Structure prediction request, 370 residues.
Amino acid sequence: MRSLLALEHVDVGFIPANVLYARLSLPQSQYDTALQKKLLFRQVLDRVTAIPGVVSAAATTSSPLYTWTWTTAFGRGEAQPKDRNTALILCSEGYFETLERVLLAGRLLTRSDVDSARRVAIVNQTFAREHFNHRDPTGQEIRFTDFETLPDWPREPYFEIIGVVRDAKNRGLEEAPRPEVYLPYTLTGAGSTGILVRSLVNPDSIFANIRREVGAVDPNIALVDAGTVQHDLDRHYYAGPQFLFLSMCGFATVGFVLVVVGLFSVISCSVASQTHEIGIRMALGAQPASILRMTLTTGFRLLAAGIFIGLSASYGLTRLLASQIWGVSTTDPWTFGGVATIVVTVGLAACFLPARRATRVDPMVALRYE
Prediction:
């Protein structure tokens, strides 16, 4: 339960509600150049943003929460890394507004930047920290050697950083954000591009309108891999832990019922076997409160023994759950303490009824009891 709650309260770095994404499947050999793609997506975005209920829309090569394109990025004067160390998204203006990303420094992409394929870049916090430490990254220059092999990539390799945005998840929900860079999508015609749309209403209700507007631009374009960001979160990141949580709850409930029934039965049996002893105690002047305390003490000893054995076994077996737990230690003291407290509380409640029955034993009847 603690792990599921931790997942559901992870800060993803943007607002996922009411955001729809879709990839555009383009006719082969028809939109291969950067200019062709720019003209196509400009028409698509203008039409989509005019749909009632749409707040903003943007072109992008990746949808949250996972960036698939990775590149080698480094600043002017830095040594070239040996591996692909940076996530990269090609997008249009409006991308950050659509996801409601937070700008920390500088500015965001403008329509002029995108239409002119200007050599500018936005970076996230992690990229700025790893490459520039405490220096202001705006105005610094970076390059991407992997993309310089593309025939339509700008010949001047360096891009100016114009803004820094707050980190957002780009390696799934459980991993920390990796360095990430955002460039105008009009720089190259290579790769697959889609759209992100933020609406005031349920995104599913306007999907037909989006499909119609895209078809009006080119009826040969299909929308594929469409969905909402919130649905992706629920399906890919929350569904597994929720199923595990419900399964564990089922087993825990059965175990809990066995604790209550077992304690009630054992204490009832103990009271029945001590009826004669209880009668003698009461005949000699024992008060009902002392009989109640004696019976509850017996139950508490059983509880204490069970809790000690249970916690010891649980501590040794937690490594088997390590792969299923996130955001909380497998030996979390609050969890262990909470479970022990619940078992003690419910266990003593289960002991109370037979203990109360013991205080009502008639001494004369008890003395004749065999």
Remarks:
- Residues 13-220 form one domain.
- The chain has two domains: 13-220, 240-367.
- The first helix runs from residue 2 to 8.
